[in-house]
Structure formats: C-alpha cells, structure tokens
Write a structure and sequence with these properties.
This protein has 258 residues and is mainly beta. It has one domain (19-257): Jelly Rolls (Sandwich). The chain contains three helices and 17 strands. Strands 3-4-16-7-12-13-14-17 form an eight-stranded mixed beta sheet. It has a seven-stranded antiparallel beta sheet with strand order 2-5-15-8-9-10-11, with no helix packed on it. A two-stranded parallel sheet has the order 1-6. Strand 9 (121-127) and strand 10 form a beta hairpin. The chain is globular, with a radius of gyration of 18 Å.
Length: 258
C-alpha cells in the first residue's frame, strides 16, 4: 500500500521507478501469484492474457502438501508496462467478467472474484463453502446476496459499477453497484442497487493507491487431494467516466433486486 503526497528524500528514493498508472491507461495485468503462500509446495499454473475485447486469467493448483491457512493469487489491472493502475475518487468504472470454479470436495473454501487492495484485501465474488455471493473488505461497501447462489462448476457473471460523488468530503458520497448473473442456473441479472461508500472521504480515497483486479484465495486445501481450477474470462474494464457507468439501459429490463 502506497500513500501519495509529499515524501522525504529517502522515501522518494525507495519508490523511484514504481510509478502508478491511471485508470485510463489499463492495458494489461500485473500477476501476483502466492500473495499468501502458506502452501508453498503446491503445484501452481497461473497465467493472464489481456485483450480490450475480453481478457482472461487461468488458475490451476494441486498437490498442496503441508501448510496452515491459505494460498492467495491475484492479477491486478495495469498499464501493460508493469505498473498497477491506481483508482481514485473521481474514476467512474464499469467492470465485468465471467468466472467458473471447479474444485475437489477436499478444498475447504474458495473466495474468488474481483479483488481490491487498500487497507487490506477486498472481494466481490463467490464463497464456495456456502455458495454465497458477497462484497467485503478493503474500501468496498459490504453487501451479501445470500448463500446458495453459486454451485461449484457454475458459470457466473459479475459486474461492479462505481459512480463518483460530488467530491471528497463533500457529503454527497460515491456509490458502488454489485450485480451477478448465474449463467448456469439462469437467474438473470440481480443487483444490489447503488450502495454509498462510508469512508471519511465519501468514496475511494485519492490520497492512497487503490488497486483492483481478479483472483482467488484457497483456504485450507487437503495436502494430497486438494485440486482447484478457476477460469476468469470475458474480463472487461471500460475507461472511466460517465459513458462507462450510464450505458445500462440494456440491463434495466433484466435486473431483479434481492
């Protein structure tokens, strides 16, 4: 986590060459496998492919061996040059993807979907132990669609829309809208509605670097039988701004609210 602002010369020297790209520069991923690496001996295959028409990330992990808690893997949106993209207060966005999780029963719980990184990690996605679809952690406003929404093996579309408020500390807060569509069971689009940020800034704080991406945390897999396969595909992140968050007419007829 990097705080923006005035830094001493020592701090400037340490972060030289670690510039953070802006949202309009999204053109790739920074892959970060083994963010948590409690099962360091696992057999991991992890890759990402970026395309403006729909990107993909694949995760295959097995033969976990001895360990304690979890392995976590992520791909952060980047400028294609190795710099993670910084999302600030005024950066409206509309990001979507489709995800499929396949896993052996011996895996305790998988938390997979959109990832966030600021003040800890956040998730908008699936918890396989209960089939819950939820958002929590980092700066992400909490919401749960309830348990039993997802079954391992389903294809589920996830969408996350950020609408900036009137300005930081203005009293008119930014909102985020979470949507899912279980393509396997045919739920149609289900929306949380617009949820206000509750941070002091009233939205994504511009004084810090907020990163978004996709990935998964695999909790307490069996040493020998744990086997996980996750595909993230059709990942779309339009450029920020009103055009990205107002083109929702096509969804209006199919949305249902829980």
């Amino acid at each position: 986590m990097m705080q923006k602002g005035y830094l001493g010369l020592g701090a400037v020297a340490m972060i030289a060459g670690a510039a953070v790209a802006s949202v309009s520069d999204i053109n790739g991923f920074v892959d970060a496998p083994r963010l948590f690496n409690d099962f360091s001996g696992s057999n991991l295959t992890y890759s990402s492919t970026f395309s403006p028409m729909g990107s993909s990330v694949t995760l295959r992990e097995s033969d976990y061996g001895s360990g304690n808690f979890a392995n976590r893997h992520a791909s952060w949106f980047s400028d294609g040059g190795g710099n993670k993209v910084d999302f600030d207060y005024g950066d409206g966005f509309d990001m979507s993807m489709v995800m499929r999780i396949n896993a052996a029963d011996s895996v305790g719980n998988i938390e997979a979907g959109f990832q966030a990184d600021l003040f800890g990690f956040g998730l908008f996605g699936v918890l396989t132990a209960t089939g819950e679809v939820a958002a929590f952690g980092s700066t992400m406003p909490f919401h749960s669609f309830g348990a039993g929404v997802y079954n391992v093996g389903d294809d589920i579309a996830l969408r996350m829309i950020h609408r900036p408020g009137a300005g930081e500390f203005s009293g008119t807060n930014s909102t985020i809208e979470y949507l899912y569509n279980n393509l396997t069971t045919g739920t149609g689009w289900v929306t949380s509605g617009e949820i206000e940020f509750t941070s002091l800034e009233g939205g994504i704080p511009s004084a810090f670097d907020q990163f978004y991406g996709v990935g998964a945390q695999i909790n307490q897999p069996d040493a020998l039988e744990g086997n996980v396969s996750i595909d993230f595909y059709d990942i779309i992140v339009p450029a920020p701004g009103a055009g990205a968050v107002l083109g929702l007419g096509a969804l209006a007829a199919t949305r249902r609210r829980r």
